[in-house]
Amino acid sequence: MAENNYSYLDEHGVIEVPKIRAEESDKEKPLSKLDILKKLSSGTGLREALNDIVSGGMGAIIVISNKNAFNVFKGGFNVNCKFTPRKLTELAKMDGAIVLSEDFKKIISANTLLVPSMEFSSMETGTRHQAAERTAKQINGLVITVSERKGSITIFYGNSRYVLQNTHELLRRATETLQILEKQKEVFNELISNLNVLEATNLVSIAEVCTILERLEMIKKMANIINEYILELGKDGIILRMRMRELTKGIEDKEDFIIKDYISRPARVRPFFDSLNFDELLDLENISKVLFGKSLDFSIIPKGYRLLSKTHLSKADIEILIKHFKNLDGIFSADKDILERLLKDDAETLQRELSTLREHIMVGKKI
User: Fold this and answer.
1) Using an 8 Å Cβ cutoff, are 335 and 324 in contact?
2) What is the pLDDT of residues 219-270, one digit of tens each?
3) Structural domain boundaries enclosing 203
4) Are residues 253 and 367 in the same domain?
């Protein structure tokens, strides 16, 4: 018997199940929802088999083995062959569960009875789904069911449950959400253009900063939702993926610059926004209170990281200027002599760039 396998004994003899080595088990990380959706996305062999099972009007339970799975199996027979969608579909014609290897590459056994402990609760009504849910909780692993009656595909992973969506419906929802994201990006671009003018004229208030951060977070949260759709769509979501990348390109960098320019304690920003839902994001007063401790109409001056990044200056030179002048207004109005002392030969070039930058901002040009 292989050294790295575990086994159980039934009326058909000894069945081996691939086992993770101890050193690998220590490093084992739980799968995220995105990891699972990627494994089951359109175009993968497993999703093809699941769709065929649904089309054939059959039901199925598929267990992905792990180091905890050996004590929930009873009966069945050893298959121990390479996974193919057709083989899995054919085995689904029999009663009982099908066991796949942890890497999804082998079919280990079929016609297997799941006997999870009744200590684990289940909210499901059908026998198949109850067994799947309890098994997923007991082994802290992945179990997939196909409902013979409804034709739905349900994923149980540990204590989590998710129903795979119809590809056409999912594509429709993803497209609609992407259209909303496009509108949000247009609004964000307008807000940035307005912020450029306010920074160039030293008229920024906390309200403008909070509004932009709010919009950035909305875009990021919507992008996360669309990313789940795209992963589940697999090959059917390629065009959506390309468009979303265009819309979200540079978003993280833009947010970093805003945070560095205006927030005195930047480390608290992302955890704070991560804790908010879409409704809570609309409360600008709360955002202002948490991040600034002041009212929305309070004036604020940017340090200058964002606009100075539009010049030829290196990050080190930008840090030198901000450390000396404290903020963007001080840099815009700086004497050439002081700039030459700080930047040497780059002073004249910087003044020319700042002048051009301000002119472009005031006439509404994109910078």
Assistant:
1) no
2) 999 999 999 999 999 989 999 999 999 999 999 999 999 999 999 999 999 9
3) 166-301
4) no
